[in-house]
């Protein structure tokens, strides 16, 4: 079960965005050798379950993906299990109450001494709720005060829209979430992202992997150990 320490770690992350509204966040970890999944309390809730109500497994994780998005999420999961490269994936999930939610998942793998992926970890940001539109409007008002700021944020937003297929509002929500979580100005997050994306691409890193790596880099202690709910052994990764 998720303990108080997890809540203490996430409390600043889930603190009020604009008008006291938090962008839902859920952490996960997958131990590849044992097949065991670990979810934070909020990730259970994001999927429509009470914390600890079910034992998270690969089958459950995959079954909640929207059928139209399943080929893409299967491809992303297979790639990170093979290479451990960072990823950023926008897709829809279907909750246990049959509600459709739109999420952005950011994560990466961790290699063992032999170069094999031994752990995959990351987080979900739920960008479904209409509250994010009000948040985007507030950000839009703020950035209009500075043409330079507006330009770099538009570039970063455009990168997310092209690579992840996000709408303008959803791209704003992702940028704002990382700004709030990292306690850095939105302009600084946008500058970091656009500068990182402008570096010549290497053959072994796709645009999706690069944007995932960059977003993960601004999250404090992204790979720090967390107290999560641990699932049973599930030997099949697909």
TrEMBL record:
Q: What class of enzyme is it?
A: transferase
Instruction: Could you list this entry's UniProt keywords, alphabetically sorted.
Output: Kinase, Phosphoprotein, Transferase
Q: Which InterPro entries match?
A: ANTAR, CheY-like_superfamily, PAS, PAS-like_dom_sf, PAS_fold_3, Sensor_kinase/Photoreceptor, WH-like_DNA-bd_sf
Chemical reaction(s) catalysed: ATP + protein L-histidine = ADP + protein N-phospho-L-histidine
Q: List its EC numbers.
A: 2.7.13.3
Return the Pfam families for the record: ANTAR (PF03861), PAS_3 (PF08447)
Residues in domain PAS?
Answer: 39-84
CDD domains listed in its UniProt record: PAS
Say if the entry is tagged with keyword rRNA-binding.
no
Q: Which GO terms describe its molecular function?
A: protein histidine kinase activity; RNA binding
Enumerate the Gene3D superfamilies for this protein.
2.10.70.100, PAS domain, Winged helix-like DNA-binding domain superfamily/Winged helix DNA-binding domain
Residue span(s) of domain ANTAR: 133-194
Name the UniProt record assigns to this protein: histidine kinase
């Amino acid at each position: 079960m998720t303990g108080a320490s997890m809540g203490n770690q996430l409390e600043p992350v889930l603190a009020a965005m604009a008008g006291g509204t938090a962008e839902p966040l859920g952490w996960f970890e997958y131990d590849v050798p044992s097949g065991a999944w670990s979810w934070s309390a909020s990730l259970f809730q994001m999927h429509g379950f009470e914390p600890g109500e079910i034992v998270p497994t690969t089958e459950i994780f995959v079954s909640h993906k929207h059928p139209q998005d399943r080929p893409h999420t299967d491809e992303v999961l297979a790639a990170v299990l093979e290479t451990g490269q960072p990823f950023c994936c926008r897709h829809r999930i279907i909750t246990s109450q049959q509600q459709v939610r739109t999420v952005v998942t950011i994560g990466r793998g961790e290699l063992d001494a032999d170069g094999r992926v031994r752990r995959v970890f990351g987080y979900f940001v739920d960008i479904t709720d209409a509250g994010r539109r009000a948040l985007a409007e507030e950000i839009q008002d703020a950035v209009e005060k500075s043409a330079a700021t507006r330009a770099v944020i538009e570039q970063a937003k455009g990168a997310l829209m092209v690579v992840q297929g996000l709408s303008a509002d959803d791209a704003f929500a992702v940028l704002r979430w990382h700004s709030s979580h990292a306690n850095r100005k939105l302009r600084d997050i946008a500058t970091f992202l656009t500068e990182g994306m402008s570096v010549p691409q290497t053959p072994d890193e796709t645009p999706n992997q690069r944007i995932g790596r960059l977003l993960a880099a601004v999250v404090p202690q992204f790979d720090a150990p967390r107290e999560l709910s641990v699932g049973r052994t599930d030997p099949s990764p697909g």
